[in-house]
Amino acid sequence: MWATLQHELRASYAFVERNIHLVRRYMGWEMVWFTYSLATTLSIAYIGKAMEYIGHAEVDTDYLVLYLVIGTLVWRFLAFLFHDISEMVQWERWEGTIEYTLMAPIHRITQMLGQTFFAVLHGAVFTSAIALAIILLFDISLTRSNVFGAVLVLFAGSLSFIGMGIMASILPLLFPERGVQMTNVAEALLLLFSGIYYPIHVLPKWMQLIARVSPATYVLQGMRATLLQGASTRSILPVVGLLILWGFGMIGGGLWAFRRAELYAKRTGRLKRNG
Q1: 197 Cβ partners below 8 Å, 6+ apart?
Q2: Residue 1: inside a domain, yes or no?
């Protein structure tokens, strides 16, 4: 049993190593996206800094900047998870390895584990670099924050985005010509409905109903409660528990759905087609 476990872990790491090599190959594009993400994040933070001048009213700009920065950084990390996992099929198709990967004698969960670990690593490095730039440019204090509680909420929420990423990865598998576009639409809708830059109660009632079924909504509420208000870890445990249950349910459902979609794609000859 231990030998089998070692074999599966080595196979999972092979996907991590392969994706790292892909990042190195396309490092120019990595720098483009990093520059774009950094510029966007800083622009949003400076909007908070400028609210006193824009609104001609006294505003706690330090609080507002931190509110916006938390939303932006949390979204950057969760979006990386969703993006890297949801486009894993398309990456295989672009590299011409999709048939080799999906026909290889490995468990699909082994591939998913490797892809997930890479997505977490990729997102953590990318988001940490942006956070460092913000710390250097803005006077941000977390002395009264519950950092441990915030990390706990982010970990619990990441499970749901892993599950959603697996579910979304079915789209490029079933729709080679437009699957990636569909995953990007799903990501954009999550951004709109989840209160990344604003509390969800400013949304229309029907949009609030949708926001309440987005795990990102609860991740952001938990992160802001712990970092802005210093909420105790005990007080956020119900949200953490909900996110963990939600996440494992979505991961299990995503794996089941991906397996069904994979069998259908193989049967109908959709693997090799390029979009």
Answers
A1: 44, 68, 71, 72
A2: no
Using only C-alpha atoms, the chain has a radius of gyration, in whole angstroms, of: 20
pLDDT tens across the length of the chain (275 residues) = 666 677 677 778 888 888 888 888 888 888 998 899 899 989 988 888 888 778 777 777 788 888 899 999 999 999 888 888 888 877 777 777 777 777 777 777 888 888 888 889 998 999 999 999 888 888 777 778 898 999 999 999 999 999 998 998 888 888 877 777 888 888 888 888 888 898 899 999 999 999 998 899 999 999 999 998 888 999 999 999 999 999 999 999 989 998 888 888 878 777 765 54
168 occurs within a structural domain: yes
Residue 4 included in any domain? no
**Domains in the chain: how many in total?**
1
Query: Is position 205 within any domain?
Result: yes
Number of Cβ atoms within 10 Å of the Cβ of 130:
20
Category of 207 on φ-ψ map: left (φ > 0), alpha (ψ -120 to 50) or beta: alpha
Query: In angstroms, rounded to a whole number, what is the distance separating the alpha carbons of residues 229 and 28?
Result: 40
Place of tokens 């609080």: 63
The CA-to-CA distance between both ends of the chain, in Å, stands at 41
In one letter, which amino acid is 71?
G
Q: What are phi and psi of 230, to 5 degrees?
A: 70, 30
Q: What is the C-alpha separation between 272 and 265, in angstroms, rounded?
A: 10
Q: Are 272 and 99 in contact (CB under 8 A)?
A: yes
Domain that holds residue 167: 12-268
Task: Give the integer Cα–Cα distance in Å for 169 and 13.
Answer: 20
Tokens of 106: 């490995």
